[in-house]
Specification:
The complex is a heterotrimer. By secondary structure, chain A is mostly helical. Chain A has helices at about 1-25, 30-50, 55-80, 85-105, 115-120, 140-170, 170-175, 180-225, 225-250, 255-290, and strands at about 130, 140. Chain A has one domain: Orthogonal Bundle (ABC transporter involved in vitamin B12 uptake, BtuC), CATH 1.10.3470. Chain A has a two-stranded antiparallel sheet with strand order 1-2. Chain B is of the alpha/beta class. Chain B has a single domain, classed as Rossmann fold, CATH 3.40.50.300. Chain B contains 10 helices and 9 strands. Classes of the chains: A mainly alpha, B alpha/beta, C mainly alpha.
């Protein structure tokens, strides 16, 4: 049962992150996910100090606030001060993360937060974090419910906005010419990424969030020429990674989040190598056909 | 040499456009009649693409205004098509040729709804018109430059508009495609559509277009090709920048001066 | 105060180690960082610093001890592999750079996490403290580490010094460097190696997660103070060293405070200060320039009203009522009042009760603005094919901008004219 809950949690995070990640990598904005997942640290520490407990809601609010602060600062430094985007991302998230660590050290006695957990997450403890109703019924691990809701919201968002997300990612100029607001869809996507990152990091940690945001979509991107297929392959890969990652960790008695990241990398390397081996012939055939 | 159209369908009034406070187009003012194929011609860096993007509302002007069908562009977007430069998109994007052409229908379909069978039929019909019907299921990264341009053209056709703005549709395409495209544009024009094309080849400009807009940071000439496109106006447009204009632009950028007072 | 003296007397050998170590590492990181920033590879530094973790763990597994030299070699190898992997993925597939960076970063770090937990399970007593590499712990620096750091920093300094011109050219204009016959690929490889070396030097103190900041933050801040690359590198190094010192000092006075994060926060503070207040490029000076421009425009427009009234009535020296001024041109009344006061203070106007008049200086300035307005209108009609009834708005702006040199050139090009396109006189001073 423990294995089931952990794998389910991993799969929920991986699927949600992967779906959004598809659009992030197509928009060449992968590193924004990196920035947000690091920037949540000071938010959760402050939330903990204010609320005095590890309740989910204050944590999510705190993390969401600093996650949004990070996106805002990146945009602000880029637009108003003319700082190049990569530097704006790098400067902002390292600053927020450093503030988080300092806060943890400063309130070491009062804060029951380990700086490591932000990087690694605590997916192994998910099955213990149970949701017990008022009359004492045990409903199962709380993160599973939260992450299911997040997955639902993200899926509905992508389903309803599929057309617009696709067009604004592919050809923003044409989208604007049609009267579709590229800025609106940019911010909707960013909000979805923040929301997902924030609700996921507690379970799986910042590093695995980045791996899930980029790994499965990048692997799927190599395998298909169709956006819908790319989303579908991402979902399958995400579930596969969660499953094999857990068992790898079980065998090695090592970090679950780490193993899931390793499997993510393994999948990419596998697909990438196969593509390298068979590509020369394939691309040749295509060029000939086009020429003919 | 600026000749205005009698009943203009496109009206550009005193348009000044700046990048980072430095004006790249100064006081451009012209009109176009309906049913013409107009060429925007000028040397590199003359502001041709900028003019097109500003007309489409993608870049806000510092001053002046644009009217299409005597109304602001936002009110008539469903009647206006835009073909961006081919290089402006990532051709590795995971979509098929038909997907791209269907994007032309997005404006008609509206928010939150999907394209239907009728849109599919229109898209296939447009692909057929540009001679790409056989490629409908092909992934776009597998196309040659000329084929990519035809797909973009088909997408514009699928919008079923009255005015078409095209940014360098002949750049990097083979001779056969260029002839096919110009043939199609003539057909559209005779059906009453208005077509505005950014172009940089002086030789073919004379034969392709019946209205010319000669640009080099400012408007040099505008009017019917035989009157506006003369050796003298071409010499003016290609005879180098107006040095003073560039210097004033530099001062505005350096001192962060607004290009309009308010 | 007492602690400050204690600190800078360096009497405590631990303080000496930490300070020298911090300063060396932040100086060399900032120096390399300047080139990384200019080549728009800021996030590559982030990937490298995360990617050294598996190397450190592998070195530990291999040697069974926390030997600094072994660990640095291990870190160097995996850091370098990460960079090669990013380049290879982007070159050989349609995956774009940002995705490649994120993927390599998270997967390498994931491998490191697995190895780390594996080592922790193994029960080797020497492993405690291995996780200091993740967040850094400058206080653990010891004398022998310092020798290694000094060597690494010296190597970095010398190599960057030798290849300064080449790196500058490659960062600034790659194709041109190629055309000149510079071995651009090899130089890239060299900069890559230097980046990894700088990261490796820094991780013991700052940790892998925050090392990216020591590379790029000082450089990003320095970029705002100069356009000269030599000065930029110098300023970046100075900022980095200051951050290193400050970090060491803070954790000296408050031993519970971590050095690395404080170094990052101090250099971020310097960066934020630069983004906001650096002369010319900062946000605040830019806003100030805009406000000053608005004031100049308002002042010159007000002077123009006096000139136009003078033209209409035939005498320029008369005193004008407030109502007379507002009747001549559509203006915001509070703005006009404030502007009139400023012009009086500048001795361009004189005031008597609620009446104002031009001084000699005011008249000269007003005349010049009107003159520039009309000259520009003439330029637009004669050189830019703009109809005479369309030139006024444009000239309203340009009249405030033209420098005396541009004025002379304009006049010469127009053949020293007397009349503008509306057939009004172009005044001379």
């Amino acid at each position: 049962m423990i294995a089931f809950w952990i794998i389910l949690t991993g799969a929920l995070v991986a699927v949600t992150c992967g779906l959004l990640g598809c659009f992030l990598i197509l928009r060449k904005m992968s590193m924004v996910g990196d920035a947000i997942s690091h920037a949540v640290l000071p938010g959760i520490v402050i939330a903990f100090l204010l609320s005095g407990s590890r309740e989910t809601l204050p944590m999510l609010l705190g993390a969401g606030a600093t996650g949004l602060l990070a996106t805002f600062l990146i945009e602000y430094f880029h637009r108003r001060a003319g700082l190049q985007t990569d530097a704006a991302i790098g400067v902002t998230f390292t600053f927020l993360f450093a503030v988080g660590i300092i806060l943890i050290s400063a309130f070491a006695g009062k804060v029951d937060i380990d700086q490591d957990c932000v990087l690694y997450g605590e997916i192994a403890y998910v099955p213990i974090d149970l949701w017990v109703t008022a009359n004492g019924t045990i409903m199962g691990p709380r993160p599973v419910y939260i992450l299911s809701v997040v997955l639902l919201v993200v899926s509905v968002f992508i389903k309803l906005g599929y057309k617009e997300l696709k067009l604004t990612s592919f050809d923003p100029a044409f989208a604007s010419a049609l009267g579709i607001s590229t800025a609106l869809w940019h911010y909707l996507l960013m909000a979805a990424v923040s929301f997902t990152t924030v609700s996921s990091f507690e379970s799986v940690g910042a590093i695995l969030v980045i791996a899930f945001l980029i790994g499965p979509p990048a692997t799927a991107y190599l395998l298909t020429h169709d956006l819908k297929h790319m989303l579908a392959i991402t979902v399958v890969l995400a579930i596969f990674i969660s499953f094999t990652g857990y068992w790898m960790a079980y065998w090695l008695n090592a970090s679950i989040a780490g193993c899931m990241a390793v499997i993510t990398g393994g999948c990419f390397v596998g697909v990438f190598s196969i593509r390298q081996l068979i590509k020369p012939k394939g691309s040749q055939a295509i060029t000939n056909e086009v020429m003919a | 040499m600026i000749i205005h159209a009698q009943q203009p369908i496109v009206e550009v009034h005193d348009l000044t456009v700046s990048y980072a406070r430095k004006p790249v187009l100064w006081g451009v003012d012209f009109t176009l009649p309906s049913g013409c194929i107009a060429g925007i011609v000028g040397p590199n860096g003359a502001g041709k693409s900028t003019l097109l993007k500003t007309i489409m509302g993608l870049i806000p002007p510092s001053s002046g205004y644009i009217k299409l069908f005597d109304r602001p562009v936002d009110e008539v977007r469903s009647r206006v098509s835009y073909v961006p430069q081919r290089e402006s998109v990532d051709w590795d994007f995971p979509v098929s040729v038909l997907d791209v052409v269907l994007m032309g229908r997005y404006g008609k379909v509206g928010l939150l709804r999907n394209t239907g069978a009728r849109d599919q039929a229109i898209a296939r019909d447009c692909l057929d018109k540009v001679g790409m019907a056989a490629f409908a299921k092909r992934q776009i990264s597998q196309l040659s430059g000329g084929q990519q341009q035809r797909v973009f053209l088909a997408r514009a056709l699928a919008q079923e508009s009255d005015i078409y703005f095209m940014d360098e549709p002949f750049a990097g395409v083979d001779a056969a495609t260029e002839q096919a495209i110009i043939g199609l544009l003539r057909e559209m024009a005779s059906a009453g559509k208005t077509i505005i094309v950014v172009h940089h080849d002086l030789q073919s400009a004379r034969t392709y277009f019946d209205w010319i807009i000669l640009l080099n940071m400012r408007l040099v000439a505008a009017g019917p090709t035989d009157q506006a496109f003369t050796d003298e106006t071409i010499q003016q447009a290609y005879g180098g920048r107006l040095n003073l204009l560039s210097q004033v632009g530099d001062v505005m950028e350096k001192r962060a001066f607004p290009s309009r007072e308010n | 105060m007492h602690s400050l003296i204690d600190f800078f007397s360096f009497s405590d050998p631990n303080v000496r180690y930490v300070v020298v170590g911090n300063v060396l590492l932040s100086a060399s990181a900032a120096m390399v960082g300047a080139f990384i920033l200019l080549q728009k590879k800021a996030l590559v530094g982030d990937a490298v610093s995360h990617a050294v973790l598996p190397g450190i763990c592998a070195a530990f597994l291999f040697s069974g001890s926390k030997n600094t030299a072994f660990m640095l070699v291990g870190a160097f190898i995996t850091g370098w592999l990460a960079l090669v992997a990013i380049d290879y993925i982007t070159a050989k597939s349609k995956i774009k750079k940002d995705a490649a960076i994120g993927l390599v970063l998270s997967v390498f770090f994931g491998v490191g996490m697995v190895m780390m937990t594996y080592i922790q399970q193994s029960g080797n007593a020497a492993q405690s403290g291995l996780d200091h590499f993740i967040f850094g712990k400058a206080a653990t620096l010891i004398g022998s580490d310092l020798i290694i750091f000094s060597i690494l920093a010296a190597v970095l300094l010398v190599v960057v010094g030798l290849f300064f011109k080449a790196f500058t050219l490659v960062a600034f204009d790659r194709p041109y460097a190629q055309a000149l016959g510079y071995p651009v690929r090899k130089l890239d490889l060299l900069l890559t190696s230097l980046t990894v070396l700088a990261v490796v030097t820094g991780i013991t103190a700052v940790g892998v997660v925050l090392m990216a900041a020591m590379l790029i933050t000082p450089a990003a801040a320095a970029r705002y103070w100069t356009d000269n690359i030599r000065r930029m590198v110098g300023i970046a190094v100075a900022f980095g060293m200051f951050a290193g010192l400050a970090g060491a000092y803070i954790s000296y006075t408050a031993p519970s405070m971590p050095t690395g994060p404080w170094m990052v926060v101090v250099s971020s503070a310097i960066a934020f200060f630069s983004f906001f207040f650096a002369p010319r490029k900062g946000i605040v000076p830019k806003l100030y320039t805009q406000r000053r421009n608005q004031r100049i425009i308002a002042e010159e427009n007000t002077l123009k009203i006096f000139y136009h009234l003078g033209e209409r009535t035939g005498h320029f020296n008369g005193m004008r009522h407030f109502n007379e001024l507002t009747g001549a041109r559509e203006v915001d009344k509070p703005l006009l009042e404030a502007t009139l006061k400023r012009l009086v203070a500048q001795k361009l106007l004189i005031s008597q009760g609620d009446q104002w008049g031009l001084t000699d200086g005011g008249w000269r300035k007003a005349t010049r603005v009107v003159r520039l307005h009309r000259l520009w209108e003439l330029y637009l009609t004669s050189y830019m094919n703009i109809a005479a009834d369309h030139v006024h708005d444009d000239a309203e702006t340009i009249e405030h901008i033209l420098t005396p040199e541009l004025e002379r050139e304009l006049e010469a090009q127009l053949g020293y004219p007397d009349k503008d396109p509306h057939d009004t006189e172009i005044p001379k001073i």
